[in-house]
Amino acid sequence: MISGYIADYFKELYTVFMDMAPYFFFGLTVAGILHVLMKKEFIVRHLQKDNFLSVIKAAILGVPLPLCSCGVVPTALSLRRNRASEGATLAFLISTPQTGADSIIATFGLLGIVFAVFTPFAALASGIAGGLMTLLWRGMQRQALPSAAAFDCNSCFEKDPHRHSLLEKLKGMAVYAYHEFLDDISVRLGIGIAVSAIITLVVPDDFFARYMGNDFVSMLIMIAVGIPLYVCATASIPIALAMIDKGLSPGAAFVFLTVGPATNMATIMLIATTMGRRIVTIYLGTIAVMAIINGTILNFIFKATGAPLPVIEHVHEGHVHGPAHALVPTLFAAIFAVILAASFFRRARETLVPAVARLFSRAAPAAAENRYVAYTLTVGGMTCTKCRNKVAAALKAVPGVREVEVDLATHIAKVKSSMSSQDKLVKAVEDAGYKVET
Q1: pTM (predicted TM-score)
Q2: Which of 17, 200, 353, 438 is the most exposed place for a label (fewest CB within 10 A)?
């Protein structure tokens, strides 16, 4: 009995993956192209004025960018340090994680044209609404900001002080799309696909329609579930698809697609710390209210147009139906499977290997452990995974360093070393192009 359920689950998992993988692959490719073409200095130049036009520009610029909720915060704070207005910064914070070039392509392939067209416009409207609320709520004291910092090639969207050949640009696109950006979302994407297969196999077909028949209540539940979760726009798509397939309304699923990627507890705390409680209030309130409004509009569109709801192709009598049989999609799915497996391996090497090493190190004699000193460095200028990896590599290369942990969200680097001072660690960070803040 159990073996039969396991076999059925893996059949559903295979079907879900084969249906989704080609769109994920093309989405990653577009994300890499945007990374090469869009320069961060261009974004900053258009967001400095504290007016309605800057808010609109910020929301528009944020829609196609492939950044999740945790990834967008360092970028947005960097923009704020470089004198982007408060309203423009919040508009960028809200619109960017809800969608992106990669998730728009995946949305079109998995949820259909209605979702694919509606989602970026809804993200744009939400970003503008949040920026406008910030402009209108001027009575309180603004958050003090650090001095502006110059952009360099360590930024997420690089200023290019030198010319790159076509081959270098293609290499940069591929490294960002299939390595750096994919590593940021691969684990959550894998979990999303796995959860989608579980919902498809285990949950009854009319579950959400039976127990969450009221659309407004369903949306409130999706907000309560989505706010604390850490899920990116692309990874949330398979979960939303599975819930629609089991009877959840498109509007309620859209609320999950909006709130899940836009918020999580780590992001909320970081924004509160750096930009103040007033901004967090506007941030969460705008996302929640606009999610319900947009979800209601989307339900109306489906009812008014009679557009078919997205469904998952199921496994019947041992046969897999749908685009998984087509040669070209299968080829792209295989390519995506390879780069996803490589990303899983890299993430495991970064997390599991140090964890195992720490586990064994606890069994070492206490005298040996006392030879190491723990240092904590606050590193300025880190804006993306590439920055974090570069700082970590620079610190690990210093003789005497035993362990290194670099947190992108807090900009904290924790180092365990046998050295008696942190001077060499500071120099290594500065040589890598970053600054240790005191």
Answers
A1: 0.65
A2: 438
